[in-house]
Amino acid sequence: MKQTEVFKMKVGFIGLGIMGKPMSKNLLKAGYELVVCDFNQDAVNEVVGCGAVAAANGKEVAEQCEVVITMVPNSPHVRAAVLGENGVVYGAKEGTVLIDMSSIDPTESKAIGAELAKKGIDMLDAPVSGGEPKAIDGTLSVMVGGKKELFDKYYDMLMVMAGSVVYVGELGSGNVAKLANQIVVAVNIAAVSEALTFAKKAGTDPELVYQAIRGGLAGSTVMDAKAPMMLSRNFKPGFRIELHIKDLNNALNAAHAISSPVPLTGQLMEIMQGLKADGYEKEDHSSIVKYYEKIANTTVES
């Protein structure tokens, strides 16, 4: 599809939260026409101020658009926005495409896709990784499941919001890849937390330890993103503990359904539940370090 043809599409965008709002703004900056919807009227007004058109619900969005993006918290929210009262399915025409960029249970992606298919509506699941900073600068990683021809058709549009857009297989595969990503990220943050807490308890400056190991095999994107936050005591959320709990719960459910043991995921879920009990669920997931600080009776600071 030529870029000029792409721009003739009206794109629907449902969900203008911490991720959806900057993603929608990047589509507007690239020249796409947007019809947006969210319960948060302030967020809607902000995006409308950037050139979007507001709609009252998913039905109204779908009536005006040939492709609708959903970016909402979890499986029940996607189901409600798409199949619930005044949902996308009631306004969509045959041939409409839903691109769900939420991070949900892959079995729900397949189930919602099956319901939409009865109405002649196709679906891609295209969850993202990168958090708010990458949503803002348009360098998210996107993992896409669904029909390959639809992936090819909307690749350029997805790349407006991303630095990487990768096709991983049939519908549901995007969320399988996202859950795998979230397992790796959680375990990696915990490993960094454990190591820096150990360094501090041993009487060595954790900042210097971080600088010493970041260029070696232990170094990672996660370490470089989260270790400085731990050391500076900056837990402003790029990705909240409560959202990572949601993802790990989906990972545990999906893994248990296929008898795939995930013992580290289970341990991280318990660590995060402990942090939630201590009132840290709204903080960035770099707050995992606080679990280690609590049990070691120390604070990771330079």
Question: Can you describe this structure in just a few lines?
Answer:
With about 300 residues, this protein is α/β, with parallel strands linked by helices.
| Major β-sheet strand ordering | 3-2-1-4-5-6
Strand portion, in percent? 5-15%
State the low-pLDDT regions, or none.
Answer: none
Structural class: alpha/beta
Mean pLDDT: 95
Indicate the radius of gyration in whole angstroms: 20 Å
The helix tally amounts to 14
Fraction of residues in H or I helices: 40-55%
Largest sheet: 6 strands, parallel
DSSP, total strands: 9
Task: Output the helix-strand order.
Answer: HEHEHEHEHEHEEHEHEHHHHHH
N→C terminal distance: 53 Å
Which word captures the global form?
Answer: elongated
